Amino acid sequence: MDYIEIHFGEDLERSSKGVKQDNDMFHSINPMFCLAKRLWKPQMDIFETRTHIIIQAEIAGVEKEDISIEVTNKAIKISGNRSRTPPPGPATYRLAEIQFGKFERILYLPTLIDPDKVVASFSNGFLELNLAKIPLQKPQKIELS
């Protein structure tokens, strides 16, 4: 079984200098006829249960070794690269909607997670991250002396 490498860090904002930060995690790009090299944003779903946050990313055509995941207790950065396969022989593009090149998403989580309990899987072009929430501490009663 192959594993996806996960990097742990303290501050994702510092590690992504020069990259425009975008808090709109559901923003979609439509680059019709655009072949320029630039970052693209894979489509993602994020949902949560009582104990976990689950992130699913659609990144078909990306090799497992080209995916990087960095985790803190309040944010996650998913980045990688999808390589372009040149068309066979002489060809003219009539439509170019598939995005290639580098991608990066920084997602700020709605609650703190335990970075040591992150599980990642990659199958059929979908990356799934299962993030365990840190349980809320119950208030402690303190007696006055």
SSE layout and pairing:
Layout: E1 6-8, H1 12-15, E2 44-48, E3 52-58, E4 67-71, E5 75-82, E6 101-108, E7 113-123, E8 126-133
Parallel strand pairs: 1-4
Antiparallel strand pairs: 2-3, 3-8, 4-5, 5-6, 7-8
Main attributes?
145 residues; mainly beta; 3% helix; 38% strand; elongated
Average pLDDT level? 81
Number of DSSP E strands: 8
Low-confidence stretches: 19-37
Quaternary state reads single chain
| Class by SSE composition | mainly beta
Report how far the terminal alpha carbons are from each other. Answer: 58 Å
Number of helices: 1
In angstroms, what is the radius of gyration? 19 Å
State the order of secondary-structure elements, H for helix, E for strand.
EHEEEEEEE
Order of strands, main sheet, comes to 1-4-5-6
Helical fraction equals: under 10%
As a percent range, the share of strand residues is 35-45%
Q: Any guess at the CATH architecture of the domain at 1-16 and 40-84 and 99-135?
A: Sandwich
The backbone outline, from C-alpha atoms, is elongated
Describe this structure in words.
This protein is mainly β and 145 residues long. It has a domain at 1-16 and 40-84 and 99-135: Immunoglobulin-like. It is built from one helix and eight strands, in the order E-H-E-E-E-E-E-E-E. It has one helix spanning 12-15, and strands spanning 6-8, 44-48, 52-58, 67-71, 75-82, 101-108, 113-123, 126-133. Strands 1-4-5-6 form a four-stranded mixed beta sheet, with no helix packed on it. A four-stranded antiparallel beta sheet has the order 2-3-8-7, with no helix packed on it. A hairpin with a 3-residue loop joins strand 2 (44-48) and strand 3 (52-58). The longest helix has 4 residues, at 12-15. The protein is elongated, with a radius of gyration of 19 Å. Residues 19-37 have low confidence and may be disordered.
